[in-house]
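Worked example (supplementary).
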Amino acid sequence: MAIRELWWIVRKELTCCYRDQDVLIYGLIFPIVLYPLLFLLTFEGIMWSTGTWEKSRNAICVVGETPDSHFVSAALASDSHLVLTNEQNPEDALKAGTIKALIRYSPPSQVTIETHEPATELLGVTEAIQSDIRHAHRESIDKELKQKHIPESVMMPFYVTWQSIKPTAHGPERSIGLRYIVDLLLQALLIYMIFIMILVGQVASICLLVEEKEKKTFDTTLLLPISRTQIMLAKFFTVNVAIALSVILHLLSLTVNTVFAFFAFAVVEAQQNPNSYVLRLLQGRIHLQLSDIVNVWYTCLKILPTLQTEIQLPSFFDIAFLMYILIASSALTAACFLFAASFAKSNKDAQTLALFPALTLIGATAISLLPGLDLNLGTALLPLSDLLIMRKFPHPELIPAFLVIFLSIFLPVLFLSAAKRIFFHEYSARRRPQTDARARS
Amino acid sequence: MTLQVNNISKTFYDKKRGEFAAVDNVSFSCAPGEVMGLLGPNGAGKTTTLRMIGTLLSPDSGNILLDGFDTVLAPEAVRTRLGFLSTDTGLYEKLTPREILVYFAKLSKYPADKIESRIEELISFLDIRQYADVRCEKLSTGMRQKVSFARSIVHDPPTMAFDEPANGLDVIAIRALHQFIKSCKEQRKCVVLSTHVMSEAEKLCDRIAIIHKGRIFAIGTLEELRAKSGEHYLEEIFFAMVQEKVDELL
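After joint prediction of all chains, the assembly is encoded as:
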């Protein structure tokens, strides 16, 4: 019965919470709208910069001929920064600014670059031309070596095998590979989720506690045949639901929009290549079948073990612990903000008071970013979890593990009971014990 | 006896006034089918007394029993049996009147199968159908008072405590309220009515307690008070009683 009552109160609190403008904006609309807008702006920005760059492509003219000049011309023609033009009078065109540079070939293989471009642009075009010419020469030499059956290795005096380099120190393994990048991305994502928790937790707590005081609905709530613990627990669960919902929405929206953005970029790229798979798919020249999708999944499953060794996917214990830390973080955030909001008399007070737990929680997250702490999935969330780093301590000791679990339960309970005590203070503190007959007896 | 208030006192602390007694040794009772009026000026202690009956405050001394349940020892049992209306009981701004009524009926353990019909009955009785599904933040003071009144009686309680229930109501709503209080007598319900409107007390109350500065100066039926004070109108009775008590104290 008590659970059913608690559910009714939570349902009412959730209704009130999500009809509040701030909670609605920060908890629901923000995650849904933010990422499409962000990707749209990025996409538009890239398209704009590509368009500007297209307009400012540099026209150049090539004159003269050497044995390998066709290699150079081919290399210059393939460079998307440059446009090769045929001018009747290239010197005049250069003077008039119709072309940016004039390239002269003179036997045996001398190349002269004449340009009138301003100093700021000089480096860009001439560097591009020089790079193309070097590349063309290299290709020409490779071809000659091949004809004379001389191995290409003569051009490469030594190789560096990065694979053989392994860490010698006892410290953590830090290879600049896929795993490191995935770790970094996950850390950034988890820290971002903490900020989301702080933002939504603050807004929801203020809505649920302070507005009751401001609108005088608190007396109304106290007239119900329910306990004060039930009232406070309902508010705590509601803030947690708001946080969880917002985090899930953020993650979903981020995933969907990232996939969409990759697809959009793939389409743009494909438009430059008429034979690309994506373009053919879009134009209906290829029809996807069920077998294709099955193949994709099969390939994914096949590469999973390789991927697992490459990025070291977390084990079941890691995921369980991560979920526990996320839930504990949400509970701690909700309890902290309810505690801060319980002191407030008005919305303005609450916003000021909420800064303390917000800064503390952000500070705690920032501490975990310190270089000596060896960032990973565990440390990114809370400094506490540094004691149980998944990769640092593969077999965590019992005492620190117990400490983390105990504190993650104890702290929210402590804050919540303090919040309840403070919030109901005005209904009990004014009692005068010396005149209370019950207390005397 | 449905409601029994036994020697309750409540002291508050204020920086300017220091400790002061809002309610001082107040006792009265209310039987089924009776309307008990608490009559007094602003700051007399009417609201504090009612808040103690409504379990919102605990008395410093004395006790209140409702159907045998102590307000301090069994507050939840008291709340289930009590309909309480005060100026401090606001409405949840983000909910509609209908949602509030459903919420209160459910949590006050009103039979689930009768909730809908009970709410429809109240909506028709108080004429709030037009705005029954509009959020309370958009309602006027009078509309809110009507909804608050409906909220206080939605679980059909046997005892009711109303603090200035006519505040903000129009003539038609006041008439409906008076009709409701009269119907409570017929249904053998107990009503404690706090008011400073003498005519309302004269019209509705079976017994009246004159309260001033936290103390009850006189208690009885209108006829008893008339006989005791020698005055006819309640206003004159009130001033005569208060003056007499002040003279006694001096």
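Two points are worth noting when inspecting this output. The two ends of chain B are 36 Å apart (CA to CA). The longest strand of chain B covers residues 18-30.
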